[in-house]
Each structure stands twice: as C-alpha cells, then as structure tokens.
C-alpha cells in the first residue's frame, strides 16, 4: 500500500472524531477509557 495514501486515509478517519476509546483486557476483565484525539495538520504533524 502506498504510504501517502495510508497517511491520507488515517488523516481522513481521525479528523472526523474528537474522542477515541482505549480498550485493554486481561483474562477476566475489559477496561475502556475515553481519550481525546490530538489535533493534526494536513502533513500529519501533531
């Protein structure tokens, strides 16, 4: 896959959201925490 297309696709997806969920798990439990998505510019700089 072309790296530039991958970066553009990631930017397009992330740019539409304000919050993401970080999910971790162990053998018996699942934990999810909301996390703010950092602002990125068109060149994918945070």
Summarize this structure as a short list of keywords or feature phrases:
2 strands; Split_barrel_FMN-bd; 46 residues; YdaG_split_barrel_FMN-bd; two-stranded antiparallel sheet; alpha+beta; single chain; Pyridoxamine 5'-phosphate oxidase like protein
Please give a structural write-up.
Residues 6-45 form the General stress protein FMN-binding split barrel domain. This is Pyridoxamine 5'-phosphate oxidase like protein. Pfam families: Pyrid_ox_like. The model has no long low-confidence stretch (mean pLDDT 84). The longest helix has 13 residues, at 3-15. The protein has one domain (3-36). It is an alpha+beta fold. It is elongated. The chain has one helix at residues 3-15, and strands at residues 19-25, 30-36.
Largest sheet: 2 strands, antiparallel
Radius of gyration: 14 Å
Helical residues, percent: 25-40%
Low-confidence stretches: none
Strand content: 25-35%
Mean pLDDT: 84
Global outline: elongated
How many β-strand runs? 2
Short synopsis of the structure:
It comes from Jezberella montanilacus. The protein is an alpha+beta fold and 46 residues long. The chain is 28% helix and 30% strand.
Helix and strand arrangement:
Blueprint: H1 3-15, E1 19-25, E2 30-36
Antiparallel strand pairs: 1-2
């Amino acid at each position: 896959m072309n790296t530039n297309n991958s970066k553009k696709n990631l930017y397009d997806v992330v740019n539409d959201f304000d919050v993401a969920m970080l999910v971790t798990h162990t053998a018996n439990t699942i934990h999810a925490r909301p996390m703010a998505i950092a602002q990125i510019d068109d060149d994918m700089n945070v």
